[in-house]
Amino acid sequence: METLVVDHPLVAHKLTTLRDVRTDSPTFRRLADELVTLLAYEATRDVRVTEVTVDTPVAPAHGVRLAKPYPLVVPILRAGLGMLDGMTRLLPTAEVGFLGMIRDENTLQAETYATRLPEDLSGRQCYVVDPMLATGGTLAAAVQYLFDRGAVDVTAICLLAAPEGLAYMDKVFANTGKPIRVVTAALDERLNEHGYIVPGLGDAGDRLYGVV
Ligand SMILES: O=P(O)(O)OC[C@H]1O[C@H](OP(=O)(O)OP(=O)(O)O)[C@H](O)[C@@H]1O
Ligand SMILES: O=c1cc[nH]c(=O)[nH]1
Ligand SMILES: [Mg+2]
């Protein structure tokens, strides 16, 4: 598995405000949206394109367009929804599939409660968006689900990742031979005893949408 921590002062600046406990929900939403667009710019470096020629007013010009089938963006509900608009702004032709997953706060096991994606993902590049990669249980289950449906490669875009979660992803997918990338704005120190990322930003879903 390949991990990319995007090292850019604008990303660091926005992430610092996102972490701040005093940042209110409207500002948190706006910053999550802005951050995903910056991360997606890096995460889509390998997006598949086909060569085309267009006529400028002066002469033919060689260029590229996104190849079909178009990428599939998969937000993991609930918190991943806060990253969807930023992705589709950058990839307007992308299709969107939804995975609803919740982590049991006691066992830290991920449970899938909703799936709404194309049945056949053969040949698809998939971009999973979820702000938090903590134990990695949620992302590993999501990636496995996409591979089971035929996805060719999966890139996960996370705002924050914990070393434990990256290690878990590495272990689970070590021998699959399928390309997996994680693109994140920061690699934090560790998880605490409740499975929260330290220093992290708290519960991303609650900060985006309110405490449930
Ligand atoms: O790496 P893990 O240990 O599996 O934890 C990460 C998951 O936890 C959060 O979702 P949560 O379960 O809080 O659901 P929510 O988005 O509905 O709040 C987060 O958005 C990830 O999906
Ligand atoms: O720190 C964490 C860990 C899991 N989920 C969150 O929203 N935050
Ligand atoms: Mg949550």
Automatic annotation (TrEMBL):
Binding site for 5-phospho-alpha-D-ribose 1-diphosphate: R78, R103, D130, P131, M132, L133, A134, T135, G136, G137, T138, D203
Gene Ontology annotations for the cellular component aspect, listed alphabetically: cytoplasm
Listed name of the protein: Uracil phosphoribosyltransferase
Organism: Nonomuraea jiangxiensis
Known regulation of activity: Allosterically activated by GTP.
Keyword Glycosyltransferase: yes
GO biological process, one term: UMP salvage
Domain Phosphoribosyltransferase, chain residue ranges per copy: 5-210
Pathways involved: Pyrimidine metabolism; UMP biosynthesis via salvage pathway; UMP from uracil: step 1/1
Annotated GO MF terms: GTP binding; magnesium ion binding; uracil phosphoribosyltransferase activity
Catalysed transformations (reactions): UMP + diphosphate = 5-phospho-alpha-D-ribose 1-diphosphate + uracil
Positions with a binding annotation for uracil: I197, G202, D203, A204
Domain of life, per lineage: Bacteria
EC category name: transferase
Functional description taken from the UniProt entry: Catalyzes the conversion of uracil and 5-phospho-alpha-D-ribose 1-diphosphate (PRPP) to UMP and diphosphate.
Keyword tRNA-binding recorded: no
Family in the record: Belongs to the UPRTase family.
Note accompanying the cofactor annotation: Binds 1 Mg(2+) ion per subunit. The magnesium is bound as Mg-PRPP.
Essential cofactor(s): Mg(2+)
Protein keywords: Allosteric enzyme, Glycosyltransferase, GTP-binding, Magnesium, Nucleotide-binding, Transferase
Enzyme Commission no: 2.4.2.9
